[in-house]
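request received
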Amino acid sequence: MQAEIITIGDEILIGQIVDTNSAFMAELLSLNGVTVKQISSVSDDREHILKALKEAKERASIILITGGLGPTKDDITKKTLCEYFSTTMRFDKVVYQDVVDVFASYGREVTPTNRLQAEVPANCEVVRNFNGTAPGMWFDVDGTIYVSMPGVPYEMKAMMKNQIIPKIKQRFELPFIYHKTILTQGIGESSLADLISDWEDSLESEKIKLAYLPSPGMVRLRLTTIGNDENKLRIAVENKIEDLTKIISEFIYGYEIFGEESESLEEIVGSLLRNKNKTIATAESCTGGYISHLLTRIPGSSDYYVGSVISYSYEIKETELGISKALLDTQGAVSQQVVEQMAKAIRLKYKTDYSIAASGIAGPGGGTEDKPVGTVWIAIATPEKVISEKFLFGKNRERNIEKTANSALNMLRKELD
Amino acid sequence: MQAEIITIGDEILIGQIVDTNSAFMAELLSLNGVTVKQISSVSDDREHILKALKEAKERASIILITGGLGPTKDDITKKTLCEYFSTTMRFDKVVYQDVVDVFASYGREVTPTNRLQAEVPANCEVVRNFNGTAPGMWFDVDGTIYVSMPGVPYEMKAMMKNQIIPKIKQRFELPFIYHKTILTQGIGESSLADLISDWEDSLESEKIKLAYLPSPGMVRLRLTTIGNDENKLRIAVENKIEDLTKIISEFIYGYEIFGEESESLEEIVGSLLRNKNKTIATAESCTGGYISHLLTRIPGSSDYYVGSVISYSYEIKETELGISKALLDTQGAVSQQVVEQMAKAIRLKYKTDYSIAASGIAGPGGGTEDKPVGTVWIAIATPEKVISEKFLFGKNRERNIEKTANSALNMLRKELD
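response:
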């Protein structure tokens, strides 16, 4: 079963807002076994909307439309739908009562402009809007379903989840789709592709599709399969993941089951710390507080996160973390000895079980021949030991900071696992 | 001049990622006088991509394509472009050298998979990628420009801004657009709209368009006008800005100059500190290192940023910042006295000229009747004094952290100005 999404509104086309509605609708459809073939954002323009509808109809059996339903002059979706279906408007009493009720709840009367909300194309089935005044509309014409929804995200989301998806499931017999995503850290997309190339080839016979989803320092690998036997699909995917785990276990930090939100590395680390009743502190140089920020953006992180010293200058490394001037002068701040001492010092000073320390050259300046931009040392101190690792990232400051933080969190995760 | 944007990749169609690239491209095009007619997200599917290209060509003279350029097996954009233009691949030596250099900078050799990055359709002009290995491609065929760019946001953004937009301006005669953006902090979108409503009405007669661009704690106001007489447009906009400044001067922290990227608050603060040869440290509680991260993500920030104490626990506030247990017990960590003492303590301890301290209830837990979620105290210590202010933000943790950081930076900016 194929669907298309059409969003109507100039604000997306001038880049003023990011279209988050489409991602929401697409995810819900995918989860329910509907393949989204195309997402189109078109202007508030009669001819353009008509063309988009005709093009979508050639490819899809379900067409979801959002936006352009407000009562103001630039919203022309309803009129254009009338034209598309060669029909006229009718006045819907149920919708009108909903509009009256919404206005009454604000202690106001319905204005003539808002009375227009109750006008709908004659051939539609109304989908009531319990969060606003613009109704949804369901059209079942020549075997194609068209749904028009308001563009206000929370109105659309509630309508989509509670009314439209159930109606689609009733109207069509849908296949089962199984997705699972493997979360990896510490290996680039192309190195990963080389490493798993034989395994990747083996997916074809099982009709499993693979997608690489990279972000700084991480690659997510998504497996997708479609069919009717839910159990068979799941087993096929899980078997392949078992094979993959043998090849790249050291890089895998988690899994994302489709439909569930994927846990971030800092959430995984946070859960491990909480479950083990352990605490953490950080001593950061090149990351400038970013590791600390990632840890503390998780609600409830005060259960395990105690605090940090951001020692950007040499002097703070000396006075607050007790790194000797001699060591800094001979080895430099970006060195194994310094970063290990930073980790040990913050763990003792802040009386935590674990600590992270990072020191590197984020760039764009500060690189030398020996230590080019992107050189980073990371250390983890545990109750038993200190481990450290050297990395050579790229030239981009912001990405170097992100990659350092993600690598550090993953090193800690391995120690906690 | 009309353009269309085509993004290729199943990850958008299954709703796994939100398409932020299109908004970025659409905004840049709009700001340069190009109207975006449609944005389409299509699947990694040969036939579908071909169809999308044909449909776009009917409506637009410029077609921007992103995604599907990685070296891995699911990326088919280049092959499909060859088919669309009835051409074959050629090996590009300049691209290959770029790939070699990128790999060399990581101390690695080019893999066979990555060698494929240097294969491009024979009829394209290569657009070099200075941030990754997949090149951009520029096609000028029958009066239509097609540009294929990598989907990785920072690679696409740099290419778009520094190479593609200048090439489009050279290739087409575009109308003159003058825009200037006023950067405000400390007033919400709707309060701002109420405050400047008469001024906003006065823009119409000058044919100046106004856009509100909100982000947590900030609103950017963008004025845009289009025409042929550059000087006249500039004067009209500057006059309106002069009027606006009289109304909302206390909220304005900067301006975004025509064609240049707007300076962030942390960049403005950084420049002020550097120019005055002053230093800064932070003592953070609820922001958990985020203020420090904002300050240090600016290249060269080690010239003025010294370090921070992130005192998340009560104990660290006592031991590292000398806040007395009695004060914490009677006033609570989120109080004027505590936050002022934090600012004073970090300034003295880290021997800086200025300091920022923040303590608040970011949420979702931890609120009380007296101090609900969103309550934040911020203090700034200067060589002469300590100032502090109480804020009541919202319920969203992430936004509260952002708003606190932006408010703190703006308080410091006012002291430095």
